[in-house]
Design a protein that fits this description.
The protein is mainly alpha-helical. It has ten helices and no strands. Helix 3 runs parallel beside helix 6. The model has no long low-confidence stretch (mean pLDDT 86).
Amino acid sequence: MSELNPKQVPFVSWLPFVTLVQREILRFMRVSVQTVITPIITASLYLFVFGATLGDRLSVVEGFSYAQFVIPGLILMGVINNAFANSSSSLFMSRYLGNIVDLLVTPITPPQFILAYTLAAMIRGLLVGLVVWLISLFFAALPWPSPFLGMAMACLSSFLFAQFGIIAAIYSDSFDALSMYNNFVILPLIFLGGVFYPISILPEPWRSLSRFNPLFYLIDGFRHALLGVGDTSLWTAFGISAGMASGLFIWAALLIGKGYKLRS
């Protein structure tokens, strides 16, 4: 890791933060085959199945092919999974190996600590999402009526799941416990949140129950920004998603501030 010259950093008090961000980015880039290329290949297989084979034969939203409908969900699925995986695995490994103590004695504040892990997780999640979108251009083009809102929702989703990853890493006492968050919480919520179908085609009571799925608002809001259609209003999706992200950030800040399971 190259050393930073304090003269190049506007505020010296942010030097530990910058160093931690740099370390976290280098950490996942050193194993990019596992952290970046593998999820891109997985998403590309989904794109091949739904884009090249079923995309032109099905239509679940009037005016759009199934490939166009499913691509926003697949992009956001890559963003969410990788943002969570980065912050949760990195912080848990620091606890497991015991080097979290070295971080706690550095002059870094709890908000800086959280933001450093969050920023690295967002970069990994958004990098995967960007490449998945570029690959999706070979299968279908999206109208992008609200490109800035689409990018804002992708950033908000990666921020939210970076916080969730930090919380999961603190509460988990084993690798099995950590994997449960992904296998029994995130994965079911993604698949039931409208990635592969609009909830408007579901019969009652499943249609109403789907609105209690927090990931529905992330996925539908992102799709609304990219296609111009959705099952809920764009501003409702942003409001609920921003509320969830703020709540998780405060939760993570309280845990980090108290040193919960970090100092023992």
